[in-house]
């Protein structure tokens, strides 16, 4: 890079040296152009000063200018690398965010499915409990009705037996009414007959 700058500087100096020789070669030409062409007495000191200034610039100013350009180039390259790293980091963050969102959606779907399943199980349990409770109530009602029916039969049978015994004792007479043991036997026999009729 430094060599390119030296070559450019040398080419400029050579071009500057050639211009006066071309101008001197055409000195005999048009009179109006003479004013623009420097005289050799002015040109050579100006050329020497120019070369000295060029050498000083190449020695002192040019390295700092080149260092500034290199620093600027390095800063630009670092900025590009940093931008690339930031872009890659952003892409990675985006991928992670997409993954987290997909995972959250999957978990939400699993939760909804589990909730539906639990709700369906709870509904089935409630329906089964209701059926069991209804069956229990119906069964208890049947048992109660059977008990009431049995009590009614027993009460009716006992009443019928007492009435029958009373009627029979009136028919049979006073002798049977005085014998309680005989009355009990007749009542038992009558109850057994009435029970066999109801069965």
3D structure, described in words:
- By secondary structure, the protein is mainly α.
- Helices cover about 90% and strands about 0% of the residues.
- It is built from four helices and no strands.
- It has helices spanning about 1-25, 40-170, 175, 180-199.
- α1 (about 1-25) packs antiparallel against α2 and α2 packs across α4 (about 180-199).
- It is rod-shaped.
- The two termini are about 125 Å apart.
- Mean pLDDT is about 80; it is low at about 20-30.
The global form is rod-shaped
On the 0 to 100 scale, the average pLDDT is: 78
Structural class: mainly alpha
The first-to-last residue Cα distance is 127 Å
Give the total of beta strands: 0
Strand content: under 5%
Determine Rg (CA atoms, Å): 66 Å
Question: Unreliable runs, pLDDT <50, ≥5 residues?
Answer: 20-30
The percent of residues in helical segments reads: over 70%
Sheet with the most strands, sense and barrel status: none
Number of helices: 4
Please outline what is shown here:
With 199 residues, the chain is an all-alpha fold. The radius of gyration is 66 Å and the shape is rod-shaped. It contains four helices and no strands.
